[in-house]
Amino acid sequence: MESYALLIAAAMNAGTLLAIAALGLLINERAGVVNLGAEGMMLVAAIAGFATAVHTGSDVLAFAAGMGAGSLLALVFGLLVIYLNTNQYAAGLALSLFGTGFSAFVGIGYVQAKLSTRPSFSLPLLGDLPFVGPALFRHHPMVYLAIALTLALAWFLYRSRPGLVLRAVGESPESAHALGYPVRRIRLAAVMAGGALCGLAGAYVSVIYTPLWVEGMIAGKGWIALALTTFATWRPARVLLGAYLFGFVTMLQFHLQGQGVQIASQFLSMLPYLSTIVVLVLISSNASFIRANMPASLGKPFFPGS
């Protein structure tokens, strides 16, 4: 039973970084902007957060540095695609490639660096319960923050006026502009907020999840987070559930290896990415379902006065 509790805990931990990044990308896409640069933003944020943690010893400052790095890259991306009307897909891919190379260059001096001993966390009383304690109540506060962010974003999108305006900008920017809303500024704010969350996820990877720096350590998680938004049909609660599902698939390989299951390690390592492809294929097979849930102006540029 203990091994299953540890599997659940590991799945939640792995799903947290996917959930935070995917929630950021969901904000982008709800505003009508597709950002394919999540992988690059998370890598730059990972090295920014790790370097800050090495020099200051503060996890809070490390998370702030990661969010700042992600938000800054998102700002550059937003200016390019929102105000200069460059192609969103090409700019996003360029951002991803830039982040991969830049993080590798900056991180050369941090490959051998080590962080101080990571603190352990446990909720009083609940953490001591059998099975559910180690499974659910001994996590880093960021795990619970991801759940709170999901609830807050769901309320924001469906229960608040600014959230309704954001959705309107993603559905029909022309109508929102006609009503007097600054569509481009709203989109830029959404892109920067999404970048900050991607940055937070990147810093979480290098500071908490695997407290070290290795070139390319995000290892495709930015792309999985991007796929999660489609998998979740652009709904926050489904993003969290999908993140935990992918986190479970990711950690299942280690659980099976620990149980002595004779399966090639290469096959187990590709399970998260294989499951991502399968899920996207299944969802994409129903085009009408996608159209009914996808923001109508997703990926489409907006030209005021046109």
TrEMBL record:
Its main location: membrane. The keyword Transmembrane applies. The chain crosses the membrane at residues 6-26, 33-54, 60-84, 91-113, 141-158, 188-207, 213-232, 239-258, 270-290. The keyword Plastid does not apply. GO terms for molecular function: transmembrane transporter activity. It is a multi-pass membrane protein. It holds the Pfam family BPD_transp_2. GO terms for cellular component: plasma membrane. Keywords: Cell membrane, Membrane, Transmembrane, Transmembrane helix. It is found in: Cell membrane. PANTHER family: ABC TRANSPORTER PERMEASE PROTEIN (PTHR43370:SF2), SUGAR ABC TRANSPORTER INTEGRAL MEMBRANE PROTEIN-RELATED (PTHR43370). This is Nucleoside ABC transporter membrane protein. It comes from Roseateles asaccharophilus.
